[in-house]
Write a structure and sequence with these properties.
This protein is α+β, with helices and mostly antiparallel strands. It contains eleven helices and ten strands.
Length: 316
């Protein structure tokens, strides 16, 4: 399995090379993941001030081998970093459960068939054995909580969850632990984290399920490309080598979404990254392909249940 691609950072963390991915079929999934590199949001960020979160998440340390994490008998081990430049953890798998969260910024996580954008109001639950990769933009914070298998009573499949203000603070507190949480105080906090995760509200997935057909994949790549945000769907399908009717059928068959619905999700996902960087809503709406701010607000609210302004206020 390849080592994570990590550019120079203020607080660099050495990552050891995993011995070998033991999960059955992992090699096939890793190959599929390679084809998704260009389909999801590209995090292009300038240096970002993290204020209190950046000051608190400072106890960086070496991450254990990605496929064999030793919790040292504790139910939880945390890992946190604030990269000065963008970082990407290439496809890998863990032997323990994981919760991925960003207190400040937007992360992108991908499996063989899905792609999630993780703003500060959401966290991603990944059961042990899930092949995935993660992208973290410059100046953004990433916190990973590694949890003993079965400790948290959640479904054994990836799940996006809402992060309450209490859970957010607990995650940030756990990110400060330099060793596995075996101290009595750590164990009490870990129990509350588990309780909060188990009652967290599942978030309707704004994930990007990628179609299987090569022509449909080319269309998906084009729809995720800002430079083609305003191109017509007919033109994009023609360039990919199929009629729009054929591509519509393939998208519904593989993703459960129409071509237009998939494009709307891609646009809203891209907008989250831009809004996090401080871009104005009017500029963001135009950049992701909307002719008017009101059309952008309507799509954003339909998918996320809140307006762009309310979203930014709620996370700050």
């Amino acid at each position: 399995m390849p080592e994570p691609i990590i550019e120079p950072m203020t607080m660099a963390v050495a990552l050891t090379r995993p011995r070998r991915c033991a999960r059955a079929g992992a090699e096939e999934e890793l190959g599929m993941l390679d084809q998704l590199d260009h389909l999801c949001v590209i995090l292009r960020r300038e240096s970002y001030s993290l204020h209190a979160d950046r000051r608190r998440i400072t106890k960086m340390r070496q991450l254990p081998a990605l496929d064999s994490i030793d919790l040292g008998g504790a139910p939880l081990l945390s890992f946190a970093r604030v990269p000065e430049t963008s970082a990407s953890w290439q496809p890998h798998v863990h032997n323990v459960d994981e919760l991925i969260y960003s207190p400040r910024g937007v992360l992108v996580a991908k499996t063989a068939t899905q792609c999630w954008v993780l703003p500060p109001l959401r966290a991603l639950w990944l059961p042990a054995g899930t092949v995935h990769e993660v992208q973290c933009g410059a100046g953004m914070a990433i916190v990973c909580l590694y949890l003993a298998g079965g400790y948290v009573g959640l479904e054994r499949r990836p799940e996006l969850m809402e992060v309450s203000p209490l859970l957010r603070q607990l995650i940030v507190r756990a990110s400060e632990w330099a060793v596995p949480g075996t101290d009595p105080k750590h164990l009490r906090i870990t129990e509350v984290i588990r309780d909060e995760m188990e009652v967290a509200r599942p978030v309707p997935a704004l994930d990007m399920i990628v179609p299987n057909d090569p022509r449909a994949r080319r269309v998906a790549a084009a729809l995720a490309n800002l430079e083609q945000a305003e191109d017509s769907l007919d033109a994009i399908c023609h360039e990919a080598g199929a009629s729009r009717r054929t591509i519509e059928r393939l998208f519904r068959q593989d993703t459960g979404l129409s071509l237009g619905q998939w494009r709307t999700r891609a646009r809203v996902q891209r907008s989250l990254d831009m809004l996090e960087r401080g871009e104005k809503m009017t500029f963001t709406a135009a950049e992701v392909g909307y002719s008017t701010p009101s059309a952008f607000i309507a799509s954003f609210k339909r998918l996320l249940g809140t307006t762009p302004g309310q979203y930014l206020r709620s996370k700050s």
